[in-house]
Amino acid sequence: MHARRTAAVAVLLLASLSGTAHADDAPAGVSLAVPAYFAPGELWEQVAQPGVGIIVANPFSGPGKDFDPGYAQAIADARAAGVTVLGYVATGYLGSTGRATRLGETTPLAWLAQAQQDVARWYELYGEHGLGGVFLDEVQNVCGPGNAYSDTYRALDESIKSLHRGAFTVINPGIGTDQCYADIADVSLTFEGTYETYQGWQPPAWQRGLDPRRFWHLVHATATQDQMTEALRLGRERAAGHMYVTPDVLANPWDTLPDYWQAELDAARSPDTTAPARPGPARAVKRGPTTLTLAWRPSPGAVGYDVHVNGLRVAGTAGRVPAVTLKNLDPGTKHAITIKARDAAGNASPASTAVPVRTRRADPEPPTTPDGLSADQVKVASARLTWAHTRDTAWYDVLMDGRRLLRLPAALLPADSSVPVSGLTPATSYTFTVVARDASGNESAPARPLTVTTTEPSGDPISEQTGSVTDTGATYQARYNLPFDFHHVYIDHDNDAATGFAVAGIGADYLIENSWYYRHTGTGWNWTPVDLNPLVSSADDLFVWRVPLTGAHRVVFHGSGSSPETYGPVITVS
Fold first, then answer.
1. CATH number at residue 472
2. Which residue among 30, 64, 145, 159 has the highest number of C-beta atoms inside a 10 angstrom radius?
3. What's the rounded mean pLDDT across residues 335-358?
4. Domain of residue 120, CATH code
5. Residues 113, 57: one domain?
6. What are the helix (H) ranges across 135-294?
7. 132 and 231 both lie in a single domain
C-alpha cells in the first residue's frame, strides 16, 4: 500500500487487523486443481465434482483450431458442478529461453500476440459452454531487464480480463517467482516437481501471510497414499490453497488420475464448513475513468476476499487487507459491487450488500485514428500487420472480422514493429482494423479496414526434406506448406525400429518439436527435454534444425495441429 492513505482506508485497514485473530486457528482446506491432460470421458467425470476447484483443459497443447463437442460438453458439465475450467495457453517464457512461436519467432511481442490469439480462440470455441478463464504455461519467474518480463505478463493478464470479463487466470512458472509477479493473475503455480523435491522446498519469503488461494503446488512421483497425505500436509504448512498430487511421472504426469484419487479428495477437505461472516459493503475510496479503489469492513477470520462487479468475479485481494483497486472498467458507467470473504478452510461468505459505484467520465479527447494499416509476409495461414502509432495511446486493439483479437500495450510495442497474426485459414479473406485506446478508456475511430487474403497451399504439405551429418552434428531441413502448429522431426539414431518410440516405420530415439528437443525414455510417448534449442531458422516456412548427433541415421518429418496430420517419407541422413 502507498504510504499516503486516506483516513477512511487507514481505519478500515486497522479494523482488518483486529478482525482476523482466529483465522490461523481454522482448519485449512485445499482446493484440488487438476491439469486434466486427457480426453473428455470417464476421467473428466471423476474430476468434475465438489472438492475440485480448477480443471485445466488441454486438447492439443492449446485450444486447437476446430470445435470439439466432447470438450464443450465436459466444460459445461464441470461448470454445472461448480468447477472452473481453464484453457491451456503456452507463453514460451516470452522467448527468453529460445522457445519459438508457431511462426518461428522468439520476441516477447510475438509470444504476447500468439498467446492472445490462443485465448481468443478458446473463448470463440468454448466461451458459451462455460469456459472460466485461461492457464498460462511456460511463464518466466524473474522480473527481467527493466521488469520487461513481468510487465509483459501483467499486460497479457490485463488484456485477457478486459476483453473477457470475469476470466480467471493462472500463471505457471512452476517455481517461486520474484515479487514483481505478486499482482499478476489470480493464482500463481509456484511449485511443479517431484515429491522428493517438495519435501525440502520452501516458497519465497514474500508470499508469507498472503491468501493461500493465490498459490498452487503440483507434486508428481508421489508413489503412495501416505506420501500423498504428507504432501497435502506440507502444502497446507506452506500456504498453498490449490494442490494436486499424483503418482504419475515425467514426461507427462498429468495424463492419468491417481489410484488414490478418492482418498486425495477426502484428505483435501477441511472439517470446517462454517462460512465467514458477510463483509461490509464496499465504498469507493478513489475513482478514475477505468479504475476504482475500494475498501470495506472486514470479516473476522477471512484470509482473502473476492470482488464481484455486476455479478462477475473480477478480482481477489492478495491477503486479508479489505481493499482492492479494480482496473479496465468502462468509463462513466455505474457498476454494482459486492464482496465475498473466504476463510482458511476455503469457505465463502454470503455476498455483501450490492453498492452501485460509478467510474468517472473519460477525458474529452480520444486518441487520433491509427493510420497506414498494412500487411506484409502474407502466407498460407499468417500475416504481419503494421500501422502508424498515435499519441496519447495506452492500448491498441486489433479487430479481425469485427471481433477484438488483440489488445496490445502501446508501451511494449516499438514504433517500427509489426504484429504477427497466425492460425488463419488458407485461401481465405479477413478484414482487419485497429483502434487506439487511451488511459481513460476513450477509443479512437477505427483505422481504415484492410482486407488480407491468405495464399493457396502449393505443392506437397511437407517438401524439400533433406538432412546431412558432419563430425559435429546433424542438420535437417523441410518446408511446411500448410499451417501446422507443430513441426516435428522424429529421429531414429540407432536405426533400430524396435527401440524408441514407434512411428511411421521407425523407432524414434529423439524428437524435435518446433524449437524443443527431446530424448525418448521409457516406453510409449515418454520424452525427456534436452537443454538445447535446435531451431536454426524458419524463414518462408523453411525450417532448419541442427542437433549434436553423428553417424548415418533415419528421420521422418511430421506436421500436425491446425492442418491435417501429415508424415513425410523416411529419409536417411548421412
1. 2.60.40
2. 30
3. 95
4. 3.20.20.80
5. yes
6. 148-163, 195-200, 225-237, 261-268
7. yes
H/E run at residue 537: strand 535-537
The CB density around residue 439, as the number of other CB atoms within 10 Å, is 17
Instruction: Encode 225-244 in three state secondary structure.
Output: HHHHHHHHHHHHHCCCCEEE
Contact 99, 515 (CB under 8 A): yes
Taking the C-alpha atoms of residue 527 and residue 538, their distance in angstroms, rounded to an integer, is 24
Q: What is the mean pLDDT of residues 503-532?
A: 91
pLDDT in tens, 15-74: 333 333 344 455 678 999 999 999 999 999 999 998 999 999 999 889 988 899 999 999
* pLDDT score at 27: 62
Virtual torsion, Cα 341, 347, 353, 356, nearest 10 deg: 60
Q: Is the pLDDT of residue 8 over 50?
A: no
Total residue count of the chain as it appears in this document: 574
Of 413, 434, 453, at which residue does a domain stop? 453
Q: How many domains does the chain have?
A: 4
Name 522's Cβ contacts closer than 8 Å, sequence gap at least 6.
none
* Contact criterion met (CB below 8 Å) for 370 and 53: no
Q: 187 with 125, same domain? A: yes
Task: Write a three-state SS string for 413-475.
Answer: CCCCCCEEECCCCCCCEEEEEEEEECCCCCECCCCCCEEEECCCCCCCCEEEEEEEECCCCEE
Handedness of CA 416, 422, 425, 426 (dihedral sign): positive
Q: Are residues 431 and 543 in the same domain?
A: no
Across-strand partners of 293? 286, 325
Predicted structure pTM score: 0.89
Query: How would residue 5 be classed by pLDDT, with cut points 50, 70 and 90?
Result: very low
Residue 538 clears pLDDT 60, i.e. is over it: yes
Q: What backbone phi and psi angles, to 5 degrees, belong to 453?
A: -115, 120
Task: For the chain, give the percent of residues with pLDDT over 90.
Answer: 80
The CATH code of the domain that includes 354 is 2.60.40.10
pLDDT of 10 strictly over 70:
no
- Domain span holding position 69: 29-268
Q: How confident is the model at residue 162 (pLDDT cuts 50, 70, 90)?
A: very high
Q: Are strands 553-560 and 542-547 parallel, antiparallel or unpaired?
A: unpaired
C-alpha 386, offset from chain centre: 26
